[in-house]
Amino acid sequence: MSIASTIACQPVLIAGRWRDANLVESFRATDPSHNQPIELDFPVSGWADVDEALRAATVAAAELRSLPAAKIAEFLEVYADLIQADAAELVETAHRETGLPKSPRLADVELPRTINQLKLAAAAAREGSWAMPVIDSAASIRSCYEPLGPVCVFGPNNFPFAFNSAAGGDFAAAIAAGNPVIAKANSSHPDTTRCFAVLALQAIERVGLPAATVQLIYRTGHQDGERMVADPRCGATGYTGSRSAGLALKAAADAAGKPIYLELSSVNPVVITTSALNQRGGQIVDEFVGSVLMGAGQFCTNPGLVLLVRSPAAETFINAVREKFAAQTPGTLLSPAVCRSLGRSVHVLADAGAEMLTGGGEALPDRCARPNAWMRAAADQFLADPEVFQTEAFGNASLVVVADDVDQLVGVIEALEGNLTGCVYSATDDPDYEPIAKALTPKVGRLLNDKMPTGVAVSPAMNHGGPYPATGHPGFTAVGIPAAIFRFAKLTCYDNVSEPRLPWLLRNANPTGGTWRQIDGRWTTDNVG
Amino acid sequence: MSIASTIACQPVLIAGRWRDANLVESFRATDPSHNQPIELDFPVSGWADVDEALRAATVAAAELRSLPAAKIAEFLEVYADLIQADAAELVETAHRETGLPKSPRLADVELPRTINQLKLAAAAAREGSWAMPVIDSAASIRSCYEPLGPVCVFGPNNFPFAFNSAAGGDFAAAIAAGNPVIAKANSSHPDTTRCFAVLALQAIERVGLPAATVQLIYRTGHQDGERMVADPRCGATGYTGSRSAGLALKAAADAAGKPIYLELSSVNPVVITTSALNQRGGQIVDEFVGSVLMGAGQFCTNPGLVLLVRSPAAETFINAVREKFAAQTPGTLLSPAVCRSLGRSVHVLADAGAEMLTGGGEALPDRCARPNAWMRAAADQFLADPEVFQTEAFGNASLVVVADDVDQLVGVIEALEGNLTGCVYSATDDPDYEPIAKALTPKVGRLLNDKMPTGVAVSPAMNHGGPYPATGHPGFTAVGIPAAIFRFAKLTCYDNVSEPRLPWLLRNANPTGGTWRQIDGRWTTDNVG
User: Which of A323, B9, B144, B202 could link B131 by a cystine bridge, Cβ 3.0 to 4.6 Å?
Assistant: First the structure.
């Protein structure tokens, strides 16, 4: 860190203007592929920046409420097109800051997904079904979800595009609901986020949205972050990242009665029955190794915990995974912080008694990376200290826990915290399936069968959520349009309000001809009456 | 309070058995119509009771998950019928404990409403649309809401039937979602709640639900209450009552990541434009006085704050209300505690500078009652200390705030906290409507036009909710089937799960022939494919 006043920092975007930050200090991101700081200084903003952003966002929120939803949809589409046009620079910048492969990961998977999310959000905003309009025509009572004010978005380190605070899932959902966004960049890819915000402002100007519809700061002190999510002017917060930082923000937001949607850590248990291993163990080894080492294991849904019942097939599985883990070159981790944290977590598990089957050594010297780690513990060990054995080792690491029998395996599942996902690999008519699924389902947001959890399809039926502490509330999903949108909305009921005074979604005529509304108990695209 | 061991207390209902409480002390309710304690001792339970209830509820929750929803619906219907059959005793008991009139209030309004809610919840449980099943047939991803475990329900003092913790709205919603309920009786009507629980257990036995589907305790120490809502075995909590107790429970539940749905205080602003007063001021006086004095003003949606612009018509309105308030015999308040609290709140407003137009004197000697209170303040005063002037005076009291002009009135609205409701009385094409409604809508869960807020219809389009601190989250409603139900549920996604392993709501065939599901983007009652 340098003395603030002597640094020429990258500007923040506040109230439609790129300007110097109200600076308390500065920071640099690291190129993890070379373990070298990137020579661009970014500001740690003081409260004055946050305060001005909240003030400008409040004005923008009121203006946005008066605009037609089609205008918001247009913004999302223009923005998506600008991102597409600037893809090469975005990919280059994100690669430098995260070490994620340019192709296929960044250019061919994550950027198209990001653009698709923005377009789906645009379509949802234009069509309005996301707002769940409900009409009781006899009682003259009508309700729908409406924007709730400025949304603060904290993006994670592991998806510089698809969960970027200025372009990703929470951003798209908050905007589609009709709210302005204050993006807090992830400190590991500030320049990528800056590039997005440049394009967002262009799209705002082209479409004619309020200037403060999208604002950007890079970092604040912890106290200012907590003050921001609890500020009376903040409508809600979306946060994806580490549990400790997330829970500190949650405590602040909760105390002020502000909604906060969190996506925190998850070990994503994968249960493989003995019948499944006997039937197709080799294939499952390949699927598992592919899932856990893809992107150096840096996914929220990375399978960090495998549960097996003791058997020869289990030993074969464990050995085959060990060989593949040992043979495969470890991927580059997102940052020195991730590299350190992975080392610490593996140590915690080893100290608790997990056997290190492969990996666990020193970090590589020339880039952010650690040997692929495959660890083993007995269910007895796990059950003696379930909290420690659920330590998330974010990165290319996984722990296999071997139970004596299915009953003990179910006991391990019952000792699990809430998770985003849980997988069961089993055979057809497998008698072990039912007790396992029965114990696992209440613990997870998404139950998968015979499939690894790392793919998170952008589907209306997706749930990228789950019981605490995977998230802050078990009823919401961060992925999936339109369900992700209504998190950033308040329910408003209009009682005895005459037709011309109703919002567009609640008038008698179907607002688009194709908007789904529940009218007198029936979901329909018809008009009222 | 008496020494616990010497008291023969009413039993608690735990794990299907009426048994003596693990007692820390005892309490009695008061007959507010005569200001006399009722000679029935009820226990304040220690942690051992709560612990056993949570343990039994956990077992019941797992059993309920395996039962067909029709069974749960049947329970709700049988229970509704038993309540109907026992109506006379329930009305007598509730009248003694609350002072609410037997007729029409208890017998002809609240009990039928309670029975109706249970039946609507039964229909919703049987039909399943409440769970919002979403099916993406191409991706083989399907999701719906599912029960989340034992629900603790804390009922309020003011609706001994319709919001009773063992029979009211939260109870019906939690059971319809498939969860067992641990009811915490309101201390002002424990015997009414005990009567309900007796009938609930009969219904449980008749239908064959798990014994611990409904359990009852009457009271705990504050610490044990907080420990209960934060316990790992608790799925969620529904609370209706005072802000201070509610926020203490919220802090405990939030820290443990447990959903808690609160319905707290609300002053329910009523804005009346000068045009409306000029047009039909006399009629509005009648509507307002009826609304605020009905049930001695003890409604969550009681209009406790009237906003007017200075004019001769405003003076006429204020005087007419004063005369009616002074002339009408004050209703009986629910308890000595409500009577004391109302006195305190009126004092707070008077001390802040509100002029006492009528009322404000001593409590009546022979029953729980206070003179109807009508207070006045200028908008300048309000704006100088908006927090104090929003003190909720729960009971037969209301404050009128007079603004210099519409701009200042809008300023008062902008200084309001979140409320359950907001009303605007205006004329057709009233130019004042738009600025008022624009400022008021973001502050309230329900915007009414030309109608007082005290009626809360049980409609699918109802929102009995609102921004903090009226509730804990602006996206949920406590009244209205089916929307109230999914609060007590977790979203679960089934990814690549074969048809026979899917829950009933997500299989290809429509589960009832009439269940609304979103299949591939369309809401339909069709089968998949």
Answer: B144
CB of A136 closer than 8 Å to CB of A143: no
Among partner residues B135, B255, B461, which is closest to A461 by beta-carbon distance? B135
- Active-site residue set of A: 263, 300
Site from B490, B506, B510 to mutate, A interface, most A CB atoms within 10 angstroms:
B490
On whether the pTM is more than 0.95, the answer is: yes
State mean pLDDT over B407-415: 98
CA of A168 vs chain B CAs: smallest distance (Å)? 22
Is residue B470 a contact partner of residue B418, using CB atoms and an 8 Å limit?
Answer: yes
Q: Residue B474 and residue A259: Cβ atoms within 8 Å?
A: yes
In sequence order, which residues have a C-beta less than 8 Å from that of residue A294 and are 6 or more positions away? A454
Taking CA–CA distances from B140, the nearest residue in chain A reads A461
Taking CB atoms and an 8 Å cutoff, what residues of chain B touch A459? 136, 139, 141
A233 and B CB contact within 8 Å:
no
Contact A494/B143, CB-based, under 8 Å?
no
Considering only residues 102 to 141 of chain A, which have any Cβ-Cβ distance to chain B shorter than 8 Å? 134-136, 139, 141
- Kindly state whether A299 is in contact with chain B, defined as any CB-CB distance less than 8 angstroms: no
Per-residue pLDDT reduced to its tens digit, B165-220: 999 999 999 999 999 999 999 999 999 999 999 999 999 999 999 999 999 999 99
Chain A hits for B443, CB-CB cut-off 8 Å, are none
**Minimum distance, in Å, between the CA of residue A136 and any CA atom of chain B:** 6
Residues in A closer than 8 angstroms to B263, CB to CB, are none
| Opening angle at CA A256, ends A253 and A258, nearest 5 | 55
pLDDT of residue A481: 87
Query: Which are the catalytic amino acids of B?
Result: 263, 300
The residue-averaged pLDDT of B270-281 equals 98
Could you tell me the domains of chain B?
Answer: 4-263 (3.40.605.10), 269-449 (3.40.309.10)
Show which of residues 405-424 on chain A sit within 8 Å of chain B, judged by CB atoms.
418
Alpha helices by DSSP H, listed for A186-230, are 190-207, 222-230
Asked whether the beta carbons of residue B449 and residue A495 sit closer than 8 angstroms, the reply is yes
**What is the DSSP secondary-structure string of B33-78?**
TTTEE-S--EEEE-HHHHHHHHHHHHHHHHHHHHS-HHHHHHHHHH
Closest by CA position to A529, among listed A240, A136, A191, A188: A136
- pLDDT of B2 above 90: no
Give Dmax over CA atoms of chain B in angstroms.
72
Rounded to the nearest 10 degrees, the angle between the axes of helix A87-98 and helix A111-127 is 120
Question: So what's the pLDDT on residue A6?
Answer: 52
Rg (CA), chain A: 24
Give me the pLDDT at residue B7, please.
Answer: 61
- Residue A254 to residue B257, Cβ atoms within 8 A: no
Nearest CA in chain B to A501: B434
Please give the pLDDT value at position A145. Answer: 98
> What pLDDT score does A361 carry?
85
Tell me whether A145 touches chain B (CB under 8 Å).
Answer: yes
Beta bridge partners of A397: A373
Mean pLDDT in order along chain A per 10 residues (529 residues) = 59 98 95 96 97 98 97 98 98 98 97 98 97 97 98 97 98 98 98 98 98 98 97 98 96 98 95 98 98 95 98 98 98 96 97 97 94 98 98 97 98 98 97 98 98 92 96 94 94 97 98 97 96
| A526's tokens | 């018809």
Contact between A464 and A477 under an 8 Å Cβ cutoff? The reply is yes
ipTM surpassing 0.95: yes
Q: Do A523 and B501 touch (CB under 8 A)?
A: no
Q: Are A50 and A93 in contact (CB under 8 A)?
A: no
Contact, B20 vs B10, CB < 8 A? Answer: no
Structure tokens that stand for A345 in this block: 């977590």
Task: Name the phi and psi angles at A168, rounded to 5.
Answer: -90, -160
